[in-house]
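Review session, final week

We close the course with one last complete record, chosen because it touches almost every idea we covered. It is (2,3-dihydroxybenzoyl)adenylate synthase, a protein from Streptomyces griseoaurantiacus with 544 residues. Go through it on your own first, then we will talk.
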Amino acid sequence: MTDAQPTWPEAESARYRAAGHWQGITFGARLRQAGTAHAERVAVVDGDRRWTYAELDAEADRVAAGLRGLGIGRGDRVVVQLPNRAEFVLVWFGLQRLGAVPVHAMPGHRRREIGHLVRLSGAVACVVPDRHARFDHRELMREVRAELGPGGSLRHVVVVGDPGPYEDVVAFDALRANGTDPAGLDTGPGDPDPGALALLLLSGGTTGLPKLIPRTHDDYAYNARACADVCALDTRTVYLAVLPLGFNFTFACPGVLGTLMAGGTVVIAPDPSPQTAFTLVEREGVTLTSLTPPLVPHWTEEAASGSWDLDSLAVVQVGGARLTEDHARSLGPALGARVQQVFGMAEGLINLTRLDDPDDLVHTTQGRPASPDDEVLVVDAGGRPVPDGTPGELLTRGPYTLRGYYRAEAHNRTAFTPDGYYRSGDVVRRLPSGHLVVVGRIKDQINRGGEKIPAAEVEEQLLTHPAITAAALVGVPDERWGERSVAFVVCPGVAPGTREVAAHVRTCGLAGHKAPDEIVQVPVLPLTAVGKVDKAALARAYAR
């Protein structure tokens, strides 16, 4: 085990291989196989653009050759910050073909987050769009480079779209053109090790900036395949990617990877609006999609208009945050589809309700583990297992759950038990059937519609506002988002408003979704007996 990438003990690795969970095939090789087995089938659809499996395989070669021309090779980390465009998939597989490591970033990340990801991962390149959602990512990268200074790891910025008047920027189209003859593509001696680092995902982050989650070819492929088996994916599957492609939920639960490994078709939605999605459902015959709870009422309301043909849609997954029972019961009839609740984490364990589960389980639980070799413990504060039905912290280990965060040796000593169980921080109840009901969290983060907001990170920036002398960020229940963030602030004068605070945190380099939804001025922050801010008391006072 290394500090950079902790791994499974050899005895467990051997058991997972013997069970067929780990198949010893890299993602680059998997695409090569699919390019032959499903050559003429449509693999990816993005607007009017389509790629067959053979074309996607060839594109991966072209992108890999272009990246190799920049000096990027096996083991190099590359931050990929792209919105829902086919280029995310092309770049991802191009990196895999090289044996390089994509670092998944979210489109809403800004200077602080991207700079942190580059430093922590040692990334040699970033791939960004020119503009997205009226934000200039080229300018963002200029700021990141200036902040990192000379001598750092970052050597290249690749821009999908117009590179603009920026120096030291490579246009993605030019990179592809330079890779039009990938013959003799050499990624080093032999194929990459399937047990090696394949990608880095982002943790939700509970004490500041996100940690990096190392995923191997073997474990991440099994993550996608196990979910695909639960969802009964095959060559007839048409998956609509509505949520950001960089999300683990969208990419591998079963998502993009699970669909491609089943020989199905991935359709990319440029935005999550029901009008956009329903148009694609009609046009492409979509059979499966995945949503977060905040989207559910918008989708049910639009479906009620009766102006859409959604007959092809068979399954709608909902995850990222807990779905209310009322919404779970209304969504299926509204869309004419089977609802599937999904509860999991980028660190590993994925739980799904089954397609043949009774409605009561589908509507009231967040599913059961995808793999028979997922190990789950529900424990009390002392680490002792609690009886079924009793709330406790979820601990887990298994064939696709990490054994340690990337380059985080000190944190790993507390995030994992001595025998390798990951302490999730989620409080759950387990039913005799194995289904889990999510009760809450013990970690200090806010889950706003699937976006994890680390309170400490936002509080740190709130305290840099000249009008604020103390601050505490608290999650409160919200019908639309599941939770929303309320900043309790102590100010000598009048507290700044939400717009002013939002502008301030953006200036500090935080993503816009981390800005507090509401500001509440208080004379003092209550403290617990050990001198910590009593956020439970603040939440109770707010509820009154």
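Two points worth writing down before the exam:
The chain has a mean pLDDT of 94.
Residues 447-543 form a domain with the GMP Synthetase; Chain A, domain 3 fold (CATH 3.30.300.30).
Good luck, everyone.
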